[in-house]
UniProtKB/TrEMBL annotation:
Gene Ontology BP annotations: flagellated sperm motility
Extent of Acidic residues compositional bias: 321-335
Domain of life per record: Eukaryota
Species name: Mandrillus leucophaeus (Drill)
PANTHER family according to UniProt: DYNEIN REGULATORY COMPLEX SUBUNIT 7 (PTHR35249:SF2)
Domain Dynein regulatory complex subunit 7 C-terminal: 697-804
Transmembrane segments: none
The protein's name: Dynein regulatory complex subunit 7
One cellular component (GO) term of this entry: cytoskeleton
Length: 809
């Protein structure tokens, strides 16, 4: 507090010199300043205050009379610890220090906003802000880095505007009490004709209102662009400051707790800083924020720029130069300085809040109740916890055309843990275009599926992960009359295939697509350059004109040529109408060669080339037909996936993984039975029977035989009772299952799908219980004789029944 102490001494000296001026300022409830400065600033300050008061008076801000927000109605304070309801002597001392600090601050800086030092907590008890922070190490790796930790915190927080944007207070929501008594509405005696006329009139009015609304929106958009903010720089806000140095942080930056986004300290949206605090100390910014936060120096060890409240707490040290550092060498001064600090130091009390404990379920839920809705201008963002929705939906962004958010423009939905690997669904309401994005792992290696309808032979674009397909297919574009495919990395260097279709005679059905494919009119194929072949023999484009029975070839162009060779074949049937074999003629091949060669002019070469092209044509037609079938399979699979929307569950998720849960329960049951068996073996089986005899008396032969018989008889009866109990439970479960099956037979027609699912689930569980009871009964029947013989042998060997051994010796 050295800087504050010096300023207080200057003020006291000025008060002694200017007593008359001080009395005048006391009547106006203003703090005293030096005479020269006061005379220059008095008029300016009053004018500024009057202008600000006039501007703020024009702004109507609804302020609730009921404060604070946290009351006994909203929070059950009876379950809170004692530290929430009372203050320790050290905390009371800290509050007194904070009040003294606040009074000195208000005295020296009357024009600045009052400090936010000790607000009321849930129990309406004042607590110092630094004691509300309790550093806690959580067992989740996602919370170790600032970005994922900030996103986690922002999901829990909900942005609620303050009733007064100039004060850090919270408004309490008013509850509307339901009405106990209501008046019955009168009978409707209106004419239908009048109602129809009124409907027409209302439609015209609504159309006129829509027109006016559009004009109003346009006007508002123009007004919003140039509309000044009357409260610019006056609103209250808080955020997080991360200082550089530790954890390899290169520079200082801000974090907005409501959004989880980071901002540079040079960002113009941050206008200034009044104070900052952590769990150890509280600092006031003594620097001028005329240039926002751009020129601020965040050296908290500099008392000139940052005035600290507590002296003895750990704080960032001021960076000293070598000259300043060399001056501190006197050991006596160092000892005296340590004594002075020791006398004036004050340790921060321990935090009064409970330690943060986040269960795995709460960490996964993130948002309150697993759902959060954030409303933006012309947009709405919805978030859900994983596995909360049965279809795996975790986030949805809806954008609107109007400010009222009634006319939807587009929807984006993000998914997680989908078995079909669906990651994002983009729906454009204007064009009705839907785009599905998939992660790697789909059975058909889908990456993007763009479509308007799931019906076959409609406009769609399907993109694939080419590394997951053996044919190297990248993308397939389909319309009502065409199909285009793009390839990469194939051994035959195929890069492009385009097929044209003509309408089929019969109507299309999913079951008849294989038997009635679309007639192919034209197939166009393009190839990459094969470096192992010369350019004049490497085909660049191949066109099969099936209707015209022609085949066109275009070869690659050499680097030193400007024209490529071309060749066209007239494809005819191999036999004529009389059955005679057709011979290859020169007019069946028309070619243009840049550099003619002798072997290409021979009919044998042309005949072999045409035969090869016929085989390739047949193969291309078959591949086009297979592509059509694959599209039908993809559409059918996508419809099944959308209907089922099955989610994947990790084997480590024992809560949701039913198989793992059943296995764990079975293991626990086996361990429990084993424990009971061990306890049973440790019991003294003769204790109840020996208690009937006088203590310390030696057993006779007759008494030993009688104890043996009674013990075996009792054990035998217990085995019979256990078998009867298991049999009774088995018969009860069987009867209940038969009744349930009879009920299902009687009401099978009227049952809903949900009721059928419940019935099947009950049958499955009942059969499981019946099977377990049957196994336990069979096991009991097998082990009962062995247990009886084992007990009989133990009785013969028991030293307390020694007379039995003499009888059978």
């Amino acid at each position: 507090m050295e800087v504050l102490r010096e300023k207080v001494e200057e003020e006291e000296e000025a008060e002694r010199e200017e007593a008359a001026e001080r009395a005048e300022w006391a009547r106006t409830e203003k703090m005293m300043r030096p005479v020269e400065v006061r005379k220059e600033e008095t008029t300016l300050t009053q004018e500024m205050l009057r202008d600000l008061e006039k501007k703020l008076s024009e702004i109507q801000i609804p302020i609730s009379a009921e404060l604070p927000a946290f009351t006994k109605d909203t929070i059950d304070i009876s379950k809170l610890p004692v530290s929430y309801k009372t203050n320790t002597p050290k905390e009371e001392h800290l509050l007194q220090v904070a009040d003294n600090f606040s009074r000195q601050y208000s005295h020296l800086c009357p024009d600045r906003v009052p400090l936010f030092l000790h607000p009321l907590n849930e129990c309406e008890v004042p607590k110092f802000v630094s004691t509300t922070l309790r550093p806690t190490l959580m067992p989740y790796p996602e919370l170790y880095n600032w970005d994922s930790c900030a996103q986690f915190v922002s999901d829990f927080l909900t942005m609620v505007p303050l009733p007064d944007p100039l004060k850090p207070t919270v408004q309490k929501e008013e509850k509307v009490l339901p009405k106990k008594y209501t008046v019955r509405p009168p009978r409707d005696l209106c004419s239908r004709f009048e109602q129809e006329q009124e409907v027409k009139k209302q439609q015209e009015i609504r159309a006129q209102e829509k027109k006016q609304l559009r004009e109003e929106e346009e006007r508002l958009m123009e007004a919003e662009k140039a509309k000044p903010d009357a409260l610019h720089g006056l609103r209250v806000h808080s955020w997080v400051l991360v200082l550089s140095g530790k954890r390899e942080v290169p520079e200082n930056f801000f974090i907005d707790a409501f959004t989880g986004h980071s901002y540079s300290t040079q960002d113009e949206r941050f206008l200034g800083i009044e104070s900052l605090w952590n769990h150890k100390n509280y600092w006031i910014n003594m620097q001028d924020c005329w240039n926002c936060c751009k020129d601020l120096i965040f050296d908290l060890g500099d008392p000139v720029r940052w005035e600290y409240m507590l002296l003895g707490t750990d704080k960032s040290q001021l960076s000293l130069t070598e000259e300043d550092d060399s001056g501190i060498n006197d050991e006596d001064d160092v000892e005296n300085l340590g004594k002075e600090d020791e006398d004036k130091s004050f340790d921060m009390p321990h935090s009064w809040v409970e330690q943060i404990e986040i269960s795995p379920e709460a960490f996964e839920t993130r948002c309150p109740n697993g759902k959060k809705v954030i409303q933006y201008k012309r947009a709405k963002l919805e978030k859900w916890a994983p596995y909360l929705n049965s279809n795996g939906l975790v986030s949805r962004l809806t954008t609107y055309k109007d400010l009222e958010c009634t006319n939807i423009l587009e929807i984006k939905e993000w998914y997680q843990n989908r078995e079909d690997m669906l990651e994002l669904k983009h729906i454009n309401k204007t064009t009705d275009l839907k785009i599905d994005y998939f992660k790697p792992g789909h059975p058909h290696a889908l990456r993007v599926h763009s479509y308007k309808s799931m019906q076959p032979e409609m406009d769609r674009v399907i993109e694939f992960y080419e590394t997951a397909r053996v044919d190297g297919l990248i993308k397939r574009e389909e319309t009502a009359s065409t199909m285009t495919e793009y390839y990469q990395g194939r051994p035959d260097f195929l890069s492009y295939r385009h097929a044209n279709f003509r309408p089929r005679v019969k109507k299309l059905a999913l079951s008849s697509a294989e038997s009635n494919p679309r007639p192919i009119v034209k197939i166009t194929e393009q190839f990459f350059r094969n470096p192992e072949k010369p350019a004049e023999e490497d085909v660049a484009e191949r066109v099969f004109l099936l209707a015209e029975e022609r085949i066109q070839l275009r070869y690659h162009c050499r680097d030193d040529h400007i024209t490529a060779s071309k060749r066209e074949f007239l494809r005819r049937t191999e036999v004529d109408s009389k059955g005679n074999r057709i011979i290859m003629t020169p007019d069946m091949c028309i070619s243009f060669e840049v550099e003619p060669m002798e072997h290409t002019k021979k009919l044998l070469y042309q005949y072999e080339a045409m035969m090869h092209l016929k085989r390739e044509e047949k193969l291309s037609r078959h591949q086009v037909w297979e592509s059509e079938l694959e599209v039908l399979e993809i559409l059918k699979l996508r419809e099944e996936e959308e209907a089922a929307h099955t989610l994947t569950i990790s084997i480590y998720d024992t809560k949701r993984n039913e198989k793992s849960k059943e296995y764990r329960e079975a293991m626990e049951r086996v361990m429990h039975e084993e424990h009971l068996r061990q306890v049973e073996t440790q019991l003294d089986y003769l204790a109840p029977f020996l208690a009937q005899l006088p203590p310390g008396e030696k057993l006779t032969r007759w008494q030993a035989v009688r104890l043996k018989d009674e013990c075996l008889s009792d054990f035998k009866q217990r085995l019979i009772n256990k078998a009867n109990l298991i049999q009774a439970r088995f018969e009860k479960e069987t009867q209940e299952l038969q009744k349930k099956q009879q009920w299902y037979q009687e009401n099978q027609v009227t049952l809903t799908p949900e009721d059928e699912d419940l019935y099947l689930s009950y049958c499955s569980q009942a059969m499981f219980r019946i099977r377990i009871l049957e196994q336990r009964l069979n096991r009991h029947k097998e082990l009962a004789p062995l247990k009886y013989l084992a007990l009989e042998e133990k009785l013969y060997k028991d030293p307390r029944l020694g007379e039995l051994q003499k009888i059978f010796a």
